[in-house]
């Protein structure tokens, strides 16, 4: 359904823990706050209701790797969606893309599923990947 594409499904903000910087070889936690989408439009004289539900999250880490999950992750101490950066970088730009399953109905009729899913790319966030070295000191 072209109308669903033209309306635009919500992109989701990526939340990174521990913040705007992380360490090489340490778990970096990712999550997002999913939202269901509901919109009613007039299309060629028909009332069309659209409903979209997130069904897949693709975590683009900004270092050339990605991971797909069916869950949006959660804040610490839950580590549902993590990534370990292998190399330091001044800035990587991770994001989350969300794939929606869309249903629609016309003039209050029965709900029908759109024959395909639709994906909204999320905005990138800047993340520094630092390297730390342990230092031994005498007591």
Fold and architecture overview:
There is one protein chain. The protein is mainly beta. It has one domain (2-130): Immunoglobulins (Immunoglobulin-like). 4% of the residues lie in helices and 47% in strands. The strands form three sheets. Strands 4, 5, 6, 9, 10 and 11 form a six-stranded antiparallel beta sheet that branches. Strand 9 (95-106) and strand 10 form a beta hairpin. The protein starts with a helix and ends in a 9-residue tail after the last strand. The model has no long low-confidence stretch (mean pLDDT 91).
The number of distinct helices, counting runs of at least 4 residues, comes to 1
What is the CATH level 1 assignment? Answer: Mainly Beta
- Estimate the global geometry from the Cα principal axes: elongated
Encode the helix/strand succession as letters. Answer: HEEEEEEEEEEEE
Count the E strands: 12
Mean pLDDT: 91
Q: What level of helicity do the residues show?
A: under 10%
Distance between the termini: 69 Å
Largest sheet: 6 strands, antiparallel
Find the CATH superfamily. Answer: Immunoglobulins
Tell me the structural class.
Answer: mainly beta
CATH topology: Immunoglobulin-like
Total tally of structural domains: 1
Gyration radius, to the nearest Å?
20 Å
- CATH architecture classification name: Sandwich
Low-confidence segments, given as residue ranges, are none
């Amino acid at each position: 359904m072209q109308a669903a594409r033209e309306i635009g499904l919500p992109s989701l903000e990526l939340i990174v823990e521990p913040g705007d910087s992380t360490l090489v070889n340490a778990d970096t936690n990712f999550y997002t706050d999913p939202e269901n989408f509901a919109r009613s439009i007039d299309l060629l004289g028909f009332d069309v209701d659209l409903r979209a539900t997130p069904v897949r999250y693709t975590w683009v880490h900004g270092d050339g790797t990605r991971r797909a999950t069916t869950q949006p992750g959660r804040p610490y101490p839950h580590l549902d969606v993590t990534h370990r950066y292998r190399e330091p970088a001044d800035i990587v730009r991770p994001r989350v893309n969300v794939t929606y399953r869309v249903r629609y109905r016309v003039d209050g009729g029965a709900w029908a599923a759109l024959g395909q899913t639709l994906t909204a790319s999320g905005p990138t966030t800047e993340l520094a990947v630092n390297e730390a070295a342990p230092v031994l000191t005498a007591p």
